[in-house]
Design goal:
The chain is α/β, with parallel strands linked by helices. It has a six-stranded parallel β-sheet, sandwiched between helices. The relative contact order is 0.15.
Length: 195
């Protein structure tokens, strides 16, 4: 995350994220901001990323934690705010037991994220996180679901930042229509973002 210039994480963690919380304090360049509710964490990440022009991260606890932040993440997705959501999940071997907080995290995330991935192996975690950062830098809400056993096992270390995908090209017809509307002399409003 830090290598991808994500330097702040708004968090409301639970037990499945404790290893990430412990790491936050050990990594220079990363600031953790504890929120008492996931709606506050996601709203703060949205506001920070919009003002700073750089991705913010959230750390949320399982599906219910993500669900508590859905309204703000919906707004962020529609505004193309660069956010990396890290959502803890039960250990891979625990999910089949359907404990009370088990839910379809990817299903929730798919509604408010342009990019969603479930890490399935500790060796993939750093690369998955780098891919999430690249997606966020392209103006997307990116959600990485991290099973507890994948985050408490060793990996090979941080991944190199990935190239940011180029923005989608605007179709010439849309440009022509906007130019024609501006030439009419009628009152007009331009909304611009993302540089």
């Amino acid at each position: 995350l830090v290598a991808g210039e994500v330097t702040i994480c708004f968090t409301n963690p639970g037990t499945s994220e404790m290893q990430f919380v412990a790491t936050l304090d050990q990594v220079p360049g990363m600031r953790a901001v504890l929120a008492l509710f996931e709606g506050v964490a996601t709203g703060a990440a949205d506001g920070y990323a919009r003002m700073a022009g750089t991705p913010a991260a959230t750390l949320l606890h399982l599906g219910p934690g993500l669900a508590n932040g859905l309204a703000n993440l919906h707004n962020a997705m529609r505004a193309k705010t660069p956010i990396v959501n890290l959502v803890g999940e039960h250990a891979t071997w625990h999910v089949p037991h359907d404990s009370p907080l088990t839910s379809n995290i990817a299903g929730y995330a798919d509604q408010v994220s342009s990019w969603v991935r479930l890490t399935r192996d500790p060796s993939a975690l750093a690369v998955d996180a780098a891919a999430a950062v690249a997606a966020a830098q392209a103006g997307q809400v990116a959600t990485l679901i991290t099973p507890a056993d994948c985050t408490w096992q060793d990996c090979e270390g941080p991944a190199q930042p990935m190239p940011v995908p180029p923005p989608a090209r605007i179709e010439q017809g849309a440009v022509d229509a906007a130019a024609a509307a501006l030439r009419t002399g009628e009152p007009a409003l331009l909304l611009m973002s993302h540089g």
